[in-house]
């Protein structure tokens, strides 16, 4: 699982369901966007088998070859997405969620109307180009994990209350209830209404902001796939400090021109130091100096009710394995425990009512040893569920019997943060 | 609008290449790269030097694909987009530029806020054009040397976008000048346009500049040298326009050319604030 150097390819195909016309193809290789295209005949056959099934009222959802997993999904009988992945450790769960995110991104940027009522394919193709950047960021090696967990990637700022107050005040001054502070795609602070945004937009909006090239400010039309798929809203972003953006979601008002430097200064200069402290927080997620056991190489903490998560592979950065490898290990472990060990997350489409009876027997912890076997080698992964929280840890040294204790202790320490 | 000042009459043209100019430029650079400023930040000069900042909003207008986004990226010292993707909505970019005034020998920090909006967003969303035009100090009208239609559309653009906006600087910029060999816009057409409209006209090439030794990072100083004429041109028009608006300069009639040496040294900027 996730050995260094084994790098697969991901191909994503988007087709108009009725005509089979390809709308776009995106690919990544070894975690970076790639030009490589599938031959047209392959695209045609992949779509063909799916359509063939549909005509017989058979839903083809996934298939596996020796090295590749394929997942199909149609949306609103109008758009078919197909993903092929030969990445090590990939799974149906990961790919299904990827397709949900991709379709969410398409709705976010062009609106549901254009996607379900395709009048002009060429125009739609052109409009969809605006979503390439965001979609590519799901295909490649991202530092974020919300695409997989469907929880919002967050960071914990050192002076959260101060920032929260400034944010609420500013949002009120701008006459919107929806405001957040985002550092490299992760939410630092948000107003209550922002936190109540549904899935997938709660995950998509900060992700979008993190994926765009730097700009002092933007007035960006967005459709909310869950909350407002046909009526666009305005996402206003203001770069307070390089890498740190203030985001507002609004209707027709206020105009971007009203959020001028004087207004920004008034609200944000007083908290300049706490803001500065947020800038390097992105990959670290936790406040500087937060005590973590030195065996921990990476962690993922999920709050399944709040739908937020903290994800970092920064601890002991000087040690093996590399950050990319650590992220791959934790992503694969998350997929494994979610698909086969832990109960489905509340609200996820995989959840079924009859599972309740089995709940009493579900494991509350699992662990996995990855890499070379034998004492003192390989990576250890442990997952622990407690109430709404689920913690996944990556560790190198800890002996297997100590993992549970390490996880329990760490979850306890992290609980006040999320 | 006042007749445009002669190039070099308001701003010292090559000052950024002088020893003094280079010292000032250091505050918008960091390790030979252009510094990116957040909206809460400003360039900081060494303590004894305190200069005024003059802020302007500039709306960049022009048909899709003429190079608006590329020009703004080039001015900001960022990577210029290679493939054309229509800009989604409005995006603004802040560029700081220190320049020396001819009349008073004073250095002023210009803060340009460029407003760039994709054409289809302008058409689709009613609020975008008014927002871009609101309280703007200047319009940049872009045409591309490789797209004749974009040049022919200029009078229409000028009327549609800046029609009822007297007293606001209007400048025309011909982009993709690096592809001049394939141009669809011959010099005589430019001359005719100039005579008819009496607007300042600049030529730009928004192509990536020199890179540093690592072969990847853009060389900030080289990039600034590439675009100094555009920023100085803008600074000149805007500063001059402000002086006219403040009544410090006669609003030169159509026939009298602006006299570059008749400016009083008082600075009329209302918005100018000391830098902290
Ligand atoms: N060679 C050259 N290409 C340019 C220049 N300016 C823009 N382009 C290219 O023209 C295309 C459209 O530019 P863009 O700035 O996105 O156009 P916009 O729609 O006006 O924002 C892009 O592929 C740019 O790389 C230029 O000065 N020279
Ligand atoms: Mg553009």
Automatic annotation (TrEMBL), chain A:
Origin species: Zalophus californianus
Gene Ontology BP terms: non-motile cilium assembly; vesicle-mediated transport
Residues annotated as domain FUZ/MON1/HPS1 second Longin: 176-269
GO annotation, cellular component aspect: cytoskeleton
Protein name: Protein fuzzy homolog isoform X1
InterPro entries: FUZ/MON1/HPS1_longin_1, FUZ/MON1/HPS1_longin_2, FUZ/MON1/HPS1_longin_3, Fuzzy
Stretches assigned to the FUZ/MON1/HPS1 first Longin domain: 11-137
Family: Belongs to the fuzzy family.
UniProt main location, coarse: cytoplasm
The entry's keywords: Cytoplasm, Cytoskeleton
Keyword Cytoplasm (UniProt): yes
Localization annotation: Cytoplasm, Cytoskeleton
Superkingdom to which the source organism belongs: Eukaryota
Domain FUZ/MON1/HPS1 third Longin: start-end pairs: 296-415
Parts forming coiled coils: none
From TrEMBL, chain B:
Pfam families documented for this protein: Ras
GO biological process entries: cell projection organization; exocytosis; protein transport
Region (Disordered): 250-276
Subcellular location: Cytoplasm, Cytoskeleton, Cilium basal body
Protein keywords: Cell projection, Cilium, Cilium biogenesis/degradation, Cytoplasm, Cytoskeleton, Exocytosis, GTP-binding, Nucleotide-binding, Protein transport, Transport
The keyword Protein transport belongs to this UniProt entry's keyword annotation: yes
Major location (coarse): cytoplasm
Keyword Nucleotide-binding assigned: yes
Listed InterPro entries: P-loop_NTPase, RSG1, Small_GTPase
GO molecular function: GTP binding; GTPase activity
One GO location term (cellular component): ciliary transition zone
Family assignment from sequence similarity: Belongs to the small GTPase superfamily. Rab family.
Function: Required for efficient primary cilia initiation, regulating a late step in cilia initiation. Plays a role in the final maturation of the mother centriole and ciliary vesicle that allows extension of the ciliary axoneme.
Subunit: Interacts with FUZ. Associates with the CPLANE (ciliogenesis and planar polarity effectors) complex via its interaction with FUZ.
Name under which the protein is recorded: Ciliogenesis and planar polarity effector 2
Organism: Zalophus californianus
């Amino acid at each position: 699982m996730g050995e260094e150097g084994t790098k697969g390819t991901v191909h994503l195909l988007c087709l108009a369901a009725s005509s089979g016309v390809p709308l776009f193809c995106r690919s990544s290789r070894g975690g970076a966007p790639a030009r490589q295209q599938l031959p047209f005949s392959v695209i045609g056959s992949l779509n063909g088998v799916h359509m063939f099934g549909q005509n017989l009222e058979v839903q083809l959802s996934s298939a596996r070859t020796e090295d590749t997993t394929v997942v199909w999904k149609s949306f609103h009988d109008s758009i078919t997405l197909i993903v092929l992945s030969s990445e090590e450790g990939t799974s149906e769960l990961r790919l299904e969620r990827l397709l949900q995110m991709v379709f969410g991104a398409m709705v976010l940027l062009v609106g549901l109307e254009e996607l379900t009522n395709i009048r002009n394919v060429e125009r739609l193709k052109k409009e969809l180009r605006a979503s390439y950047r965001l979609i590519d960021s799901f295909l490649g090696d991202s530092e974020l994990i919300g695409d997989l967990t469907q929880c919002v990637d967050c960071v914990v700022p050192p002076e959260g209350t101060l920032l929260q107050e400034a944010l609420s005040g500013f949002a009120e001054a701008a006459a919107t209830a929806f405001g957040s502070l985002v550092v490299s795609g992760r939410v630092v602070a948000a107003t209550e209404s922002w936190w109540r945004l549904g899935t997938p937009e709660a995950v998509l909006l900060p992700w979008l902001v993190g994926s765009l090239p730097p700009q002092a400010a933007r007035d960006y039309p967005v459709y909310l796939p869950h909350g407002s798929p046909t009526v666009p809203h305005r996402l206003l972003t203001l770069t307070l400090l390089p890498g740190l953006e203030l985001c507002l979601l609004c209707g027709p008002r206020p105009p971007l021109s009203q959020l001028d430097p004087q207004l920004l200064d008034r609200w944000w200069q007083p908290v300049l130091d706490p803001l500065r402290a947020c800038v390097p927080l992105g990959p670290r997620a936790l406040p500087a100096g937060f005590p973590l056991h030195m065996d921990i190489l990476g962690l993922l903490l999920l709050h399944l009710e709040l739908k937020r998560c903290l994800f970092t592979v920064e601890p002991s950065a000087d040690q093996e394995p590399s950050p990319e490898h650590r992220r791959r290990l934790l992503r694969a472990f998350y997929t494994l425990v979610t698909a086969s060990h832990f109960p489905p997350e509340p609200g996820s489409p995989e959840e079924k009512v009859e599972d309740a009876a089995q709940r009493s027997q579900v494991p509350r912890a699992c662990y996995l040893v990855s890499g070379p076997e034998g004492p003192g080698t390989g990576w250890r992964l442990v997952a622990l569920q407690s109430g709404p929280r689920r913690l996944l840890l990556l560790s190198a040294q800890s002996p297997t019997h100590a993992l549970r204790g390490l996880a329990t202790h760490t979850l306890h320490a992290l609980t006040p943060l999320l | 609008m006042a007749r445009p000042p002669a190039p070099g009459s308001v701003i010292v043209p090559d000052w950024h290449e002088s020893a003094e100019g280079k010292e000032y430029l250091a505050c918008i650079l960091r390790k030979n790269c252009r510094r990116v400023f957040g909206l809460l930040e400003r360039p900081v000069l060494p303590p004894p030097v305190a200069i005024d900042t003059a802020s302007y909003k500039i709306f960049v207008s022009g048909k899709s694909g003429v190079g608006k986004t590329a020009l703004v990226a080039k001015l900001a010292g960022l990577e210029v987009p290679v493939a054309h993707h229509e800009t989604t909505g409005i995006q603004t970019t802040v560029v700081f530029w220190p320049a020396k005034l001819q009349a008073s020998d004073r250095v002023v920090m210009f803060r340009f806020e460029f407003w760039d909006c994709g054409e289809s967003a302008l058409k689709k969303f009613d609020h975008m054009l008014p927002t871009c035009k609101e309280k703007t100090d200047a319009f940049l009208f872009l045409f591309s040397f490789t797209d004749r239609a974009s040049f022919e559309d200029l009078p229409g653009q000028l009327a549609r976008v800046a029609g009822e906006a007297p007293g606001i600087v209007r400048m025309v910029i011909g982009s993709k000048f690096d592809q001049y060999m394939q141009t669809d816009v011959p010099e005589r057409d430019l001359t005719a346009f100039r005579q008819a409209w009496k607007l300042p006209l600049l030529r730009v090439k928004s192509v990536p500049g020199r890179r540093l030794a690592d072969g990847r990072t853009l060389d900030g100083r080289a990039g600034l040298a590439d675009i100094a004429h555009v920023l100085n041109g803008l600074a000149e028009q805007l500063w001059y326009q402000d002086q006219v608006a403040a009544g410090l300069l006669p609003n030169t009639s159509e026939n009298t050319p602006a006299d570059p040496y008749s400016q009083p040294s008082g600075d009329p900027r209302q918005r100018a604030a000391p830098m902290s």
